[in-house]
Amino acid sequence: MVSQSVINVDLADVFEHPDRKGFLYTLAWGDYVEVLETTTKHLRISTVKFEEKSDGSILPVQTEAYICPTKESKLKPTDVVIPRVNNQVLKVNFVDVQQGDGAVIESPDGKIILVDGGDNQLFARYLAARFRGTSETKPKEIDCILVTHGDADHFAGLTKIYESETNAEPRKRLFIAPKRVYHNGLVKRPSKDKSNKAIPDKKLLGPTQVVNGETILTGLVDSLLDVSDDEMNLPFRQWKKALAKWNDRNKIEFRRLSFAQDDAFDFFKRNNLDISVLGPIMTGDGSVRGLKFLGNPPKGPRIGHESLNLDQEEFKGFSSSHTINGHSIVFRLRYGGFSFLFCGDLNDEASRILARKHQNGEINLRSEVFKVPHHGSADFSGAFFQMVSPIISVISSGDESAKKEYIHPRATLLGALGRYSRVDEPLIFVTELVAFFNLEGWAHLTDKKKDEERGEFFAFSRTAYGIVKTRTDGTRMLIYTDSGKADMKEAYCYSLDDNGLPVPSALVRA
């Protein structure tokens, strides 16, 4: 009889044979598994193994395999899994999408939230491999897509999910049916008018009004489907097209979020699990409300970022890029004694606003896991980091091209994360650094014309995605990454002490 189960230890190695020979891969706490047989020595499971083809592609092949706890672990096979209906593990994966952000949140009862999605096909490929077997008649239900803000490196990759539906290879297709799409309400206009003349920054994000001496953006929208194409730049028009198709498949709740709209995540709440929306912060007077038009930060390089001087005003002029970044959706995901803080591309000016609210007791920024804002940019607030006081920090960044090189993460930011952590040995992960690239040697491009122009070059291939994976049941946390060796993981655990504070804990591996 097949048992629908989940892994109940930190890491469980999977083998081709019941004598722990023929290592395949490692499952982690909270991973789903079908158990075909349980004996006193092993679990026989239904799974897939990945075989490399002659063209370099790695394809899943259905098979059976074994989990066989070691004598040293003192675990019995029945200790390794529990029934899926008893699952209590929240899973949060931060995916390397190169220059961009992309994360997947999965609740213990299987609800899925996608947070951003990069600007290329990497996020779509990862999701297609994770949610295999979808079709137009059997799409994967996505409970929420949350786009933190309207920069292409945070949402254009989500459009690639829709485009994947026509991929020639079925394994690369992903059909989804989103229930909700949340965003910050700002839409980027085309950067040039019909006469090819550059449009000023102050007009790139829609109508504004001056209220109490502040310029605020008032043209905020809930649904992109209500915005005409000529008021959007190209990535927004492409995103609108994908949303329209998905909306035809399954009516979507579109909503722009701002501070304190926690009810947007009532669908996700359960015992000790909730999401608080901390930003962006609306401003204005009476019926005229909107988002403040932010300015330019001081020119760098900057060393010695302020820590507690939150009233210092250094931001001048009108910057559309800093405005759309600074008004990223900021939210705190809490499960029991562990919290995650997601910040999009939050910058120094906007961070200070949130830090002041934290000082005043209006919000709580303190979080164990910190998705560091803006890929590790130098435009950060030391005071904000000090108030978050993380134990684990995750930076989503990656090399892609010289055009997209921003020197992320910056040395000053890494130093600040270490300084303002609440522990002596904080964990700082960078998605591009946990990817693995295999040396291939001299190679040629498959495109003949490009190959003639480029010539022979020295090549590497990425054989392990740069994914930072976290698991928690609210009382214990596992964080781990893959490596070039299938059996090697960088893994750490924390549990809560008698005072409810996280402390290092021993890793349990079967």
TrEMBL record:
Cross-referenced InterPro entries: Competence_DNA_uptake, Metallo-B-lactamas, RibonucZ/Hydroxyglut_hydro
Pfam families assigned: Lactamase_B
Tree of life domain: Bacteria
Metallo-beta-lactamase domain span: 99-399
Name of this protein: Competence protein
